[in-house]
Design goal:
Blueprint lengths: L11 E6 L5 E2 L2 E2 L10 E7 L3 E2 L5 E2 L8 E3 L6 E5 L2 E7 L5 E3 L3
Antiparallel strand pairs: 1-4, 1-9, 2-3, 4-7, 5-6, 7-10, 8-9
Length: 99
């Protein structure tokens, strides 16, 4: 996977947005009618933020988690014609439970 080449630093998280539905039932939606999805999958995380004394604060999210993303925010990163988001862990709104 091309995203494995990027290792985030500190408390940053590399996320791939989940695909939006382009078809509902038997109706295909045009690209202009599709909205951005606010969910993504964590592909990589940094080691965690640092305190003023130099201690590392462990990350809450881990690779493979499905997370809730803000509507705006993060930096778009393009690797091998695929677009990813690079966010700080504090920008992630929550972790979705897989149940």
């Amino acid at each position: 996977m091309a995203a494995r080449r990027l290792k985030p630093l500190l408390d940053r998280v590399l996320v791939q947005r989940l695909e939006t539905a382009s078809k509902i039932g038997s109706v295909y939606l045009p690209e202009t009618a599709q909205s951005k999805t606010h969910q993504g999958t964590v592909l990589a995380t940094g080691p965690g933020a640092r305190t003023t004394t130099g201690d590392t604060i462990p990350m809450t999210v881990k690779e493979g988690d499905t997370v809730l993303l803000p509507e705006y925010g993060g930096d778009k990163v393009k690797i091998d014609d695929k677009e990813y988001l690079l966010l700080r862990e504090t920008e992630i709104l929550g972790v979705l439970d897989g149940k």
